[in-house]
Every structure is written in C-alpha cells, then in structure tokens.
Amino acid sequence: MKRKLIEKRITVGFSQSEIEQLDTYCKLAGRTYTDVIRECIRNLVITSPKSSVNKAK
Fold first, then answer.
1. Is 7 within 8 Å of 14 (Cβ atoms)?
2. Contact 22, 32 (CB under 8 A)
3. pLDDT digits (tens, 9 = 90+) for 23-52
4. By the 8 A CB rule, do 26 and 36 touch?
C-alpha cells in the first residue's frame, strides 16, 4: 500500500509531562506519535458558537 505524500509539516511544542504521557501511550499501544496525534485531530468535534455565526452574516 502506497502512503500519501505529506502536504505540510508543522512543529508543535509539548510540556515534559505531555511528552511522557504521549510516549507511554505510544509504547503501550504500539503506535507512533504521528499516528496518535493524527487520530486525535481527526476526532476533534468542531462547533460554531452562535455569536461568531451571527458576526459572519
């Protein structure tokens, strides 16, 4: 299976505690940092507050 090309690369800063949590989870789950972070982003629920919707009109 061919992988998709990376369209954009970003750098994100994490606290030491966040790195340790991510590292522990990845080791236990047998997954990469990238895989876990991408899944988190895909699972985000984006809502639009009524006030910002009204301002856009």
1. no
2. no
3. 999 999 999 999 999 999 999 988 887 655
4. yes
